[in-house]
Each structure stands twice: as C-alpha cells, then as structure tokens.
Amino acid sequence: MSDKKCTKCGAAVDAEEVKEYRGEELCEDCYLDVMSPTQVCDPWAVHTAKSLKDLPGGHDLTPVQQRLYDLVKERGEVPIPEACAHLGLSEDDLRREFAPLRHMEKLRGCKKDNIIQLTLF
Ligand SMILES: [Zn+2]
Questions:
Q1: Is residue 49 pLDDT above 60, yes or no?
Q2: Which fold has domain 60-120?
Q3: Phi-psi region for residue 10, left (φ > 0), alpha (ψ -120 to 50) or beta?
Q4: pLDDT tens-digit series, residues 67-79
Q5: What is the mean pLDDT of residues 40-65?
Q6: Where along the chain do its domains lie?
Q7: Cα 71 to ligand 1 centre (Å)
C-alpha cells in the first residue's frame, strides 16, 4: 500500500517509510540525497568526487568512510544497523558518512526485507 508521494521525485512511498526533512516527505533515495553534505553545500564536490574516483587510491575518504568502505568490501552486504554498531556511529552519522561514498559511486544502499543493506556500487 502506497499512500504517500515523495515531494522530490514523485515516487510512491509507504506511509511508514516516508522520511521527513524540512517539511518535505521524501523517499529513501531522495532522503539520502538531501542528507548528503556535498550535494547540499557544494554541487561541485560531486563533480570533483566523480573525477577523482578513477585516480589510484582516491584518497579523499575520511578515516570513518574508509572503515565503512572496507567493512562493506569485506562482507559484501552490511545492514545499516550493523554498520552503525561496527563503527560506533548513530544512524544519522552513518548516513552522513555514507552519502559522499554514494556520490563517489563506491557504495550504495539497497533495500532488502525492509532493511537497507550497504553494498559496493
Ligand atoms: Zn524521491
């Protein structure tokens, strides 16, 4: 049953899965997008991140982002709550760390059984 609409992309969203952000009702994807500091503050950061991703190493990850990336790389799929526990972060903090990784096309979130799994891009 979908009885809400994402105000950003118009996708149908289950009422209990709607994310509210600054008065908007967003789907998971758009929520992750708006939570991304790079996209909100500096559209060029995304461009830069994309052009950096082909460089060997691409040393533009924070230590936490590197640990998150390594964790997902090692396990293949990591549910968000498990990643939080592993890195000692709140879910909000984890999403903030995750957003740049997503824009760098290193990690992505994919939903399975109502839990968001982080996987390699
Ligand atoms: Zn949306």
A1: no
A2: Arc Repressor Mutant, subunit A (1.10.10)
A3: left
A4: 999 999 999 999 9
A5: 58
A6: 60-120
A7: 27
